[in-house]
Amino acid sequence: MAGYGSYLRSGHSPMSQAHILVIDDDPSVREVLHETLIQEGYNVSVADNGTSGLQTAKEQPVQIVVTDLHMPDLDGIELIDRLSRIDAGIIPIIMTGFGTIEIAVRAMKSGAFDFITKPFNPETVAVVVKKAVEVYRLRQENHLLRKAVRDQYRLEQLVGNSEPIRQVLEFVRKVADSDSTVMIQGESGTGKELVARMLHFNSFRKDRPLVPVNCGAIPENLLESELFGHEGGAFTGATHARMGRFEMANGGTIFLDEIGEMSLPLQVKLLRVLQERAFERVGGNRTIHVDVRVVAATNQDLEKLVEEKRFRQDLFYRLNVIPVVIPPLRDRRSDIPLLIDHFLAHFNRSKNTAVAGLAPEALRLLTEYDWPGNIRELENMIERLVV
What per-residue confidence (pLDDT) applies to 100? Predict the structure, then answer.
């Protein structure tokens, strides 16, 4: 292993302070990897067997582990399993002198990020470690972004303490973890999408996609393709296959906003998806099965649309499993001062202003106003005042 030394590089600026743990029972391997990775700017620890490596991982945070597959006390596959119990975010890289495809497949199935065959070029290891660190960073960023989104849609974010809004909060709290279809009804601007997002981000599906579709904003001739996708050549302009919103939402939630705007022919196809959780892409014949929760919303009276034969009764019953009505702002006037304070704080932060509040007479006038545009109108008013 002494020949590895000729590959050591110098003069590289530190790329990262990621902590890399090298585990190998061969001291020359440990030495060359320690020197190589130190020169790359990493914080490096070494261990001569799996047991001591696990102890190191328990005592201090480790991002990447480079480990031999065959060691006297613990093989690399079992080591990966035990490392994941300590920290599921650790990224393992396997090294072995027995470079067979079967072993590589076994290592990758066990969760290894990559597979390196001995003897190796230390520069190759450095490249693999660099890629692993980048993946670790991306995973962490993704985790933090998801956490930020979840925090944004905590139940406390539904501002208000009036009885109507407390009922909506209690509704979200009770049904968020259910898989049942939810129908949200309310006037434009009342916060139907906010409630839909709260239902998703407070459910067990919160780490899976939430895919919104505004059924009233997409032309009727494109909505079917938008929902279910299409195969290449299905229609003019369909040069390649495209995944639809239901596929994108697999494992998560699809939010069908303005569902009352959907045409009758498309309602029939949606009904089948709700019944079977299966569909075919436009121009295709392969049945695609999805696990998705459906949340729909409308500002229309769907029961009236059913009477007028503009909305299918069977689809209405499929969608209206768990209904909730979001109250208009005029029915929760006691929440208006709280909402004003909330929006003032938000716009003061985003626009770097320092508006302290409203004069008592202004607050009285805003509280007495009926707000036909509901919370959206109030938010726009406060932004305009702050600017």
Answer: 66
